[in-house]
Specification:
It comes from Lunatimonas lonarensis. One of its GO terms (molecular function) is 4 iron, 4 sulfur cluster binding. Keywords: 4Fe-4S, Electron transport, Iron, Iron-sulfur, Metal-binding, Repeat, Transport. The chain contains 22 helices and 10 strands. The protein is an alpha/beta fold. The protein has a 6-stranded parallel beta sheet with strand order 1-10-7-4-2-3, sandwiched between helices. Strands 8-5-6-9 form a 4-stranded mixed beta sheet. The structure holds iron/sulfur cluster.
């Protein structure tokens, strides 16, 4: 079995295009700054974060009861509720619903959960043309890519590239990259798809246990357009997306848009409770590893995530290596603590793709201790996982040297001597990853300890 690609190896691909790396970094930092401005305008920002965190803590510790309450209320509203233990079961439910209702054409609004379950691929194999209606998602669907960001799926593409994609798939003018013109072309194209669709698939941002209703947030109104026109609405929801009461919703809606894009509110926060007369509404509640994560004491509160993407926009590693380098449905800091829970071997390098600066935890609207969990995963991986051998040995060696003053002094002296006589061609060669992008500092004549003993010891 071949080893999964490491984060560093995947990042190297992205980093080859220096101009794109810089632009990607700056673009996401700009979104982070917009988030800061929006947050600073609310004096109660920290109170909201605390409330959201506490509500989610309550949800996680009462998940069993709240799910039963949610199901009961949804059923009473006339919604058909289905449970899926994993992605396979989820996809089979969707397929069966489409078959039973003789659905020929379907549209889908943005849903990370359906990405996680591989729904598009599954349905395409069954002969369905799944049309993603979120603009960013449609762009990457044309480009045969997966989202590189959970809120801005096509953030890795420049408008010139989007112009080329639209020229190829939608027949827009060659070389045209005006966002207004391209958006209009997408709108005309998608209207046609909305009108033809018999079924609309959406994700769920918040399920409300008290009412059995749920909320879907979009900026483009595409979820509403799809669900209002089609006879069948299939809503796919991770079981952790619950909140206890409708009154709690305001806390999360205020935090979500500000954290995601710096907007005060998402353009469309649509509430669904029951099917319209003559129509059907299905709700699929998906576990897919969530209850296992809930049982891991150190990592359970990663399930508080409301998928705002703020931890990605602030992360220096994500900004410079893009979402593709993570190889997981949810990239960035939160993805690096969720993914090892799904497959420790495949995602064993992700918790190391972090500076542990803590910026992710600082911006997280539900106060997940992301950087601490990254550190915890490193410990788990070092103990029972599959850390890279080179890393394992170098850490062992470092532990020996740092734990023994005599060894430390000897190694320091040796390194200072060796660095002086080692030719630059070796220091800045492929063999030394550290030398690839940086100049090493000038080697000092002596260590700090030697200098201290000479100059200050007797002061
Ligand atoms: S972990 Fe926090 S900051 Fe990151 S996406 Fe989830 S809610 Fe947003």
């Amino acid at each position: 079995m071949s080893s999964p690609k490491t984060h560093a190896a995947a990042a190297e691909e992205f980093l080859k295009d220096e101009a794109r790396t810089l632009w990607h970094d700056e673009t996401l930092w700009h979104v982070r700054q917009k988030r800061d401005t929006a947050a600073q305008k609310l004096p109660e920002w920290e109170t909201l974060r605390n409330q959201a965190s506490q509500i989610k803590d309550y949800v996680l510790s009462h998940l069993d009861e709240l799910l039963v309450q949610f199901e009961k209320n949804a059923l009473a509203n006339g919604v058909e509720v289905l449970w899926a233990k994993d992605g396979k079961e989820h996809n089979e439910h969707v397929y069966r619903i489409l078959q039973e209702n003789h659905v020929k054409k379907l549209v889908k609004s943005k849903s990370i959960l359906t990405e996680e379950c591989g729904l598009n691929h599954f349905l395409e194999e069954k002969g369905y043309d799944v049309v993603d209606t979120d603009l960013g998602e449609r762009i990457i669907q044309f480009n045969h890519q997966v989202p590189s960001h959970i809120v801005m799926p096509a953030i890795h593409l420049k408008k010139k590239e989007i112009g080329e994609i639209f020229h190829k798939h939608l027949g827009t003018k060659e070389g045209a990259d005006d966002p207004g013109y391209l958006t209009e072309a997408a709108r005309i194209h998608l209207r046609e798809k909305f009108i033809q669709a018999n079924a609309a698939i959406t994700g769920v941002n918040f399920g409300i246990a008290e009412t059995g209703g749920f909320v879907v947030c979009t900026n483009e109104g595409n979820a509403d357009m799809g669900t209002h026109l089609a006879d069948i609405h299939i809503a796919c929801m991770g079981i952790e997306k619950l909140i206890p009461r409708a009154a709690d919703l305001g806390v999360f809606l205020r935090l979500l848009a500000r954290s995601a894009t710096g907007q005060s509110i998402t353009n469309y926060s649509s509430h669904f409770h029951r099917p319209s007369p003559g129509k059907k509404m299905y709700l699929i509640l998906v576990d897919n590893g969530r209850t296992t994560q809930l049982g891991r004491e150190d990592f359970r509160n990663s399930l508080k995530c409301i998928r705002c993407g703020a931890c990605m926009n602030t992360c220096p590693i994500y900004r410079r290596s893009s979402g593709f380098s993570y190889g997981s449905t949810v990239p960035g800091p939160i993805g690096s603590i969720l993914s090892p829970g799904i497959d420790l071997n495949k995602y064993s390098t992700l918790p190391f793709a972090s500076t542990l600066c803590g910026s992710c935890s600082e911006v997280c609207p539900v106060k997940i201790n992301i950087h601490e969990q990254l550190y915890k995963w490193r410990q788990v991986i070092a103990k029972e996982g599959n850390p890279q051998l080179a890393k394992k040995w170098s850490m062992k060696l470092a532990g020996k040297v740092l734990g023994n003053p005599a060894w430390y002094n000897f190694m320091g002296k040796t390194a200072r001597t060796m660095l002086k006589i080692t030719p630059d061609s070796l220091i800045y060669s492929k063999v030394n990853a550290w030398g690839k992008k940086r100049d090493l500092p000038e080697v000092p004549k002596e260590s700090f300890k030697e200098w201290y003993q000479k100059n200050r010891k007797n002061e």
